[in-house]
Model the fold of this input.
Amino acid sequence: MRKLISVILTLCLAASLAACAGNNTESGSTAVASGQSSESSVSETSSESSVSSAVSETSSTGETATGDVLTYDEYMAAELDTEVTIEAYVQAKQSWWEDKATVYAQDEDGAYFLYNLACSEEDYEKLTPGTCIRATGFKSEWSGEVEIMDGTFEIVEGDEFLAEPLDVTEMLGTDDLINHQNQLVQFKGLTVAPSKDADGNEVAFLYNYDGSGSDGDDLYFNVSYNGATYTFTVESYLCDNTTEVYKAVTNLQVGQTIDAEGFLYWYEGVNPHITSVTVVQ
Done:
């Protein structure tokens, strides 16, 4: 859904800039995607660095994360639309585009979804699983998903951390589930429930949420547990059509029992970004 809105906004902006270019033949500007700056502000490095000696590298924008580092509880208690600084460990990268990155990060206490993080393509390659980063951005909410938007980051030397998936199967349908938002989680013993395609046929999965897509787009599939049905997603930017999980979901059949693993994303309710599916029976 967010991708669709972003595409519409980008097309509108591109049309507007094209019209302006027609009135100014000397203009050499190019359309820039909505929400992205045309220039990165570069700050000069002072002789007396305020950054801890533990920080080894900064993002390519030249900006560094600022502010007091919050614990996970302090981060969750912070008001929406306020600037926050956190330290956490990269668990996975969703995408990079025009010097913006989207990253799943976690520490021993909780997890974070970092959306549109200022990042060069070179620095994006350094964000390998387990890498510690310090990030500053704005705590925001998108249809129930709490995230850090439009941030900057720096890589912090030290120990690495890879989270073990937390079994949240019995939390499905409870108020406690959202307390583990964005964490790496697993579900066991789910039943593949039918979805309806654009023609009204019952199918095991859909390309895009409404069945309007094709191979390579996001996958949506329903699962049931204890009489309730939930929608899971294979986010194509995170796990594209060359990955094992993408292939596994396109081979699912209604009624099969599966185990699944992924990041506990939220969109109008629980909507995990699935990274692994195993057919049990």
Summary: The chain has four helices and 15 strands. The longest helix spans residues 2-23.
